[in-house]
Design a protein that fits this description.
Largest interface: A-B, 20 and 22 residues
Strand order of the largest sheet of chain A: 14-13-19-12-20-21-11-22-23-24
Number of helices of chain A: 22
Radius of gyration of chain A: 34 Å
Helix content of chain B: 25-40%
Shape of chain B: globular
Structural class of chain B: alpha+beta
Number of strands of chain B: 16
Strand content of chain B: 25-35%
Order of helices and strands of chain B: HEHEEEEEEEHEHEHEEHEEEEHH
Oligomer: heterodimer
Strand content of chain A: 15-25%
Number of strands of chain A: 24
Distance between the termini of chain B: 19 Å
Largest sheet of chain A: 10 strands, mixed
Helix content of chain A: 25-40%
């Protein structure tokens, strides 16, 4: 049996309660803030010796000195003399611990006097109630990190039922930027989830929105630096230290449309990068995202609904102000329809068409036509669609949508549509996987606690509040938790905290933490997290390994972003990904003949279709141009002049 | 069953607190009535028969008492040969009365605190000696059971007559005084037991709070130094007294011999461990007792330096901080906590 490291103490002024107790230790003890301890009661309650588990939340140190002045007097006012004292003053290390669990749980009593022991592995499991979900045959534990204190090295597990639903769900991560907390923690945790999510609970995948920099751009590449200590942690937690095996990237084109608008545009990495392009049909449903409240009054809303229901993808015959038949399938078609309609109304001097006032029609035309410009690269005039593989999501796959370089409008549109589609498919149970994790960083921006209500915020709130019933789980991250909408963070069953800013810690949301715990949070090392989870009655500090994937900055150095390319180069690069035999000369043959718009459209269609014969498919998407033929020298009679030229004709040759 | 380390009795059925002591005796003495059990100023009572006197010293170093420089009180700090500190404590309470006769309950304890790496811990991990006893004048209390009378933890404070053959008066104050003296004696016994144990097993020097002449073995040992802080008896008269009260910090007096019929002879001297400028004449003044040895003069210098060094850290907030070593304060606090 190990020796006790402390003793419980209580005084009338500082009594123990059912939720808190005090103990002292020797000056050399390994106890610190966040250490888990076990108290063995001295007297049985209902025939059972009580065991109380607690976590240290506050520490005190003092001597028998009653006034600082006494120390000054004792050393003649010279601090240098203090070191010469033959005796050190009696000193105490007094700790306050918050109760994690009492066994037996009833009757719930104040913590009794007793010896205090450093919690061992079994104690940690009991203290955190992990014994309830780590049972043989019903193990739903997902390792989140390792708790360390003294000789104890214990894996801390989250309960999958409470991390990924259905009991509770969602995860929120807070931490200062640049300290390898948020992205690293999510990458590590996704690895852990993929490795440990119970097979009997079904398939799981993740959709990650890369909102800044190259953070999530190299999830399929091995880490440059993985130290032995990290490998030990991986082994202890039963996760292979390797990058994600199945990752697909999605990114819109740049405004020019030549190259993909992503930091992962290096040719060596393009094999699993898919363009993300949407047409009118995909966008119109989420027009609300791009139009502000001033844009969409009731009248405009009604017209947009009319267009969605009665115009798009329907044949509109020539009638009334329309001068011809229309089939609207793209932004180009829509513009043509608007133009025809308005010209017709102006011709006939009509003020309204089908109850829609001409001013409303002009306004909606203006706003909708504008979308393809505002979201150039994502929204195509032509209606070409390249999308996430809704319906065929694969188990243990990561789908990264890179929106880092996009304008805010385009980002919002992407969030709204993708998450809505995911939700629809999960509701219909035809997404391809049963559970889906959606990771969104910078929640300060997308779901702020103040400011006007946005479509994206409403959607994030909806996931946070109802997603778990569908298997849609939100992993979110931000620097300042206090600035995120309360219902989003409040609905996160699990919360991780990296090193925090002192100002943030001073906000009311952290008042439940002791001053010492807040101090520890403000000074956490890289690779350390504070974890809150429904099973843990108090926050727990753990260590997690470096992610086994390439860091964003390493990837950006090793795989530099493709520079701004010419049309020829863009076509050559993207088509060579499908057919390595394609040559630059072949591409140049086509660029010499066709317009830029045609070539880009053909390239996009080819990338989308991924045909077996790339050359033939690409060419089939271009207009047929009859090449000029040289006049045959032989075998063909020379054309006769219609009539001979009169001799001496002053207008003749 | 946990035997009392002093009496060998069974501690489990013996009171360990004032409240228990009150109830315990209430159950066994039908005529007794409980009292609030407030602590008694045993020190004041014990000093009542100790007059404040000046005595001529029997100087054994030089011809007369002189002030001798020992060391710079600042530079001396940090060097001390004392390896441990011995002190005792007593807590005397009147917990009941039986027809006006005080029933005294006292806890007496003593311990040695050893200094290891500048920190004080129990000597060899030993538990302190603790004795909890009733002090009752049997002859004045009616209805005492045989069980109480025969218990070694119940002391008869009126069993022995004085040299004139008189037993203590039944006056409650006289009986309380007799009880306090007996408690003091028990405390001395515990301290002596520990000091003798030290002398027989150690080769380092022990700092004892108080005189050492009560034990022949201890007073003859080079391993024990006694430090007396109270000056009811001052070994200086006339010029010697003037030298004594003007003694500066870092000085000691010549060595003189202290002896009495009932106690062993020891070497003694005064040391001023703190400057008394602006203070009373006895501020920072202690009297040291050590064994009479050939080299006592050089030992006196060395021991005085150690005593000056022990002045830091201060023993505040104890009222005797000017004379008290921090080790002794720590020992007293320890005993207060555990007994």
């Amino acid at each position: 049996m190990t020796a006790p490291l402390g003793r419980v103490v209580a005084t009338e002024r500082k009594p123990n309660t059912p939720h808190e107790f005090h103990f002292w230790t020797s000056l050399e003890s390994v106890v610190g803030i966040g250490t888990i301890v076990r108290v063995d009661g001295a007297h049985a309650v209902q025939g059972q010796i009580p065991h109380i588990y607690g976590i240290v939340v506050e520490g005190f140190s003092y001597t028998d000195l009653q006034s600082p002045m006494h120390d000054v007097l004792g050393h003649d006012g010279s601090p240098a003399n203090a070191g010469f004292s033959v005796t050190e003053r009696a000193e105490i290390r007094l700790y306050t611990a918050a109760v994690l669990r009492q066994i037996p749980e009833e009757p719930l009593q104040p913590v009794p006097m007793g010896e205090v022991f450093l919690a061992e592995e079994a104690d940690v499991a009991a203290a955190l109630r992990m014994d309830g979900y780590l049972r043989e045959g019903a193990n739903t534990g997902i390792p989140v990190g390792v708790y360390r204190a003294g000789a104890t090295d214990s894996v801390v597990y989250l309960d999958a039922d409470f991390l990924l639903g259905p009991e509770a769900a969602h995860l929120n991560i807070s931490g200062m930027s640049g300290l390898a907390t948020k992205t690293s923690a999510v990458e590590w945790l996704l690895s852990s989830v993929f490795a440990h999510f119970p097979a009997e609970k079904g398939s799981i995948a993740a959709v990650c929105f890369n909102v800044k920099g190259p953070d999530l751009c190299y999830l399929d590449q091995p880490a440059d630096r993985l130290e032995e200590s990290d490998r030990v942690l991986y082994e202890k937690m039963g996760v292979k230290p390797e990058p994600f095996q199945n990752v697909r990237y999605f990114a819109p084109y740049t405004a020019k449309g030549y190259a993909l608008n992503t930091l992962r545009s290096n040719e060596a990495l393009l094999h699993n990068v898919t363009p993300l392009t949407w047409g009118l049909r995909e966008v119109l449903q989420y027009a609300e995202v791009l139009l502000n409240k001033d844009d969409i009054d009731a009248k405009a809303d009604a017209l947009i609904d009319f267009i969605t229901e009665r115009v798009v993808d329907r044949r509109m015959e020539k009638e009334g102000p329309l001068s011809r038949d229309h089939t609207v399938q793209s932004f180009g078609d829509l513009e043509a329809w608007f133009r025809d309609l308005l010209q017709g109304m102006e011709r006939s001097n009509a003020e309204s068409w089908r109850t829609h006032h001409i001013a409303t029609i002009r306004k909606v035309r203006n706003r909708l036509s504008n979308i393809s410009t505002r979201c150039a690269g994502l929204v195509t005039d032509t209606g070409d669609v390249s999308d996430l593989p809704f319906g065929s999501f694969e188990d243990r796959s990561v789908y990264v949508v890179d929106v880092a370089s996009l304008e805010e409008d385009a980002q919002d549109l992407i969030f709204a549509r993708i998450v809505s589609k995911l939700r629809e498919h999960l509701e219909r149970r035809d997404l391809g996987v049963k559970h889906l994790i959606v990771f969104v960083d910078e929640l300060n921006k997308y779901a702020p606690g103040d400011g006007h209500d946005t479509y994206v915020r409403k959607m994030l709130l909806d996931i946070a509040e109802r997603g778990r019933y569908l298997g849609l789980v939100l992993f979110s991250a931000q620097q300042f938790r206090s600035q995120v909408h309360r219902r989003v963070v409040g609905n996160s069953g699990t919360a991780l905290y990296g090193r925090m800013d002192s100002d943030e810690l001073a906000t009311p949301g952290y008042s439940v933490l002791s001053p010492a715990t807040r101090t520890k949070l403000a000074t956490l090392e890289k690779g350390q997290l504070m974890v809150r989870h429904p099973h843990f009655t108090q926050p727990i500090f753990v260590r997690f390994p470096r992610p086994a994937v390439m860091l964003g900055r390493d990837g950006a150095e090793r795989y530099p972003q493709a520079t701004d390319v010419t049309l020829e180069n863009a076509l050559y690069r993207s088509l060579r990904g499908l057919d390595p035999d394609i040559t630059m000369a072949w591409v140049q043959q086509h660029t010499a003949l066709y317009d830029e718009e045609d070539l880009v459209r053909a390239r996009n269609a080819t990338l989308l279709a991924r045909p077996a014969n790339v050359r033939a498919f690409f060419q089939s998407r271009l207009r047929t141009i009859v090449p000029p033929e040289p006049v045959a020298a032989q075998g063909r009679p020379a054309a006769k002049p219609l009539r001979p030229i009169p001799i001496g004709d002053p207008y003749g040759d | 069953m946990t035997p009392d380390p002093v009496t060998g009795g069974n501690e489990r059925d013996w009171p360990v607190s004032t409240h228990e002591a009150t109830r315990f005796i209430l159950d066994r003495l039908r005529d007794s009535t409980p009292l609030d059990g407030a602590p008694t100023d045993a020190g004041r009572i014990a000093r009542q028969d100790e007059p404040a006197v000046l005595l001529a010293p029997e100087v054994i170093e030089g011809d007369s008492l002189a002030a001798l420089p020992v060391c710079d009180p600042v530079s001396a700090r940090g060097v001390s040969g004392f390896a441990a500190f011995l002190d005792g404590s007593q807590d005397v309470r009147v917990v009941n009365q039986a027809n006006g006769i005080p029933i005294v309950w006292a806890t007496v304890s003593a311990t040695v605190r050893e200094r290891i790496d500048r920190r004080l811990v129990s000597w060899q991990g030993r538990a302190p000696l603790v004795s909890r006893r009733y002090y009752i004048p049997f002859r004045y209390v009616e209805g005492m059971s045989g069980e109480l009378r025969n218990d070694s933890r119940v002391v008869d404070t009126a069993a022995v007559a004085d040299s004139s053959g008189n037993f203590p008066s039944p006056h409650p104050a006289a009986l309380l005084e007799a009880a306090v003296k007996r408690v003091q004696r028990d405390r001395d016994d515990l301290e002596r037991e520990l000091a003798e144990a030290w002398c027989s097993s150690e080769d380092r020097v022990l700092y004892v709070d108080g005189g050492i002449a009560g034990s022949e073995a201890v007073s003859a040992s080079r391993l024990v130094v006694g430090v007396v802080k109270s000056h009811r008896r001052i070994y200086a008269t006339g010029d010697a007294f003037r030298i004594l009260v003007r003694l500066e910090a870092g000085y000691r007096t010549s060595i003189f011999k202290v002896s009495s019929r009932s106690r062993s002879a020891v070497a003694s001297w005064y040391v001023r461990i703190r400057s008394a400028a602006g203070r009373d004449a006895l501020f920072g003044l202690i009297r040291v007792e050590a064994s009479l040895t050939e080299d006592i003069a050089s030992r006196a210098d060395e021991i005085s330096c150690w005593l000056i060094a022990e002045g830091s850290p201060l023993a505040l907030p104890d009222g005797r901080w000017d004379k008290m070593a921090y080790g002794i304060r720590n020992t007293e606090e320890f005993l207060r906590a555990v007994s």
